Amino acid sequence: MREEIEVSVNGRLFVVPVGTTVAVAVLLAGETAFRTSITGQPRSSLCGIGICFECRVTIDHHPHQRACHRLCQPGMEILTR
């Protein structure tokens, strides 16, 4: 039996498997932009290993968290905007 947890992505609740990274949760939520650049361009996960910093999101009110480095936790609040 697969264990699952519930997280919030931009205010919408989603159930993801335990061990899911925040980056995958954002993509499963249908979001294509993780953040907006200072010039207003949408940015998304690029390298997937934390080198590029393009996947930064706000996690539980802490901005600039790398989504590819963090595993989802029950009740986690993820914001891409």
Number of domains: 1
Percentage of residues in strands: 25-35%
Using only CA atoms, what is the Rg?
A: 12 Å
Parts with pLDDT < 50 across at least 5 consecutive residues: none
* Major sheet strand order: 2-1-7-5-6
Number of helices: 1
The overall average pLDDT, rounded, is 94
Major β-sheet profile:
5 strands, mixed
Number of strands: 7
Shape, per Cα inertia axes: globular
Span of the ends, CA to CA: 34 Å
What level of helicity do the residues show? under 10%
What would you call the structural class?
Answer: mainly beta
Order of SSEs, N→C?
EEHEEEEE
Oligomer: single chain
Task: Characterise the protein shown here.
The chain has 81 residues and is mostly beta strands. It has one domain. It is 9% helix and 35% strand. The strands form two sheets. The protein has a five-stranded mixed β-sheet, covered by helices on one side. Strands 3-4 form a two-stranded antiparallel sheet.
Short description:
The protein contains one helix and seven strands; from the N terminus they run E-E-H-E-E-E-E-E. With 81 residues, the chain is mainly beta.
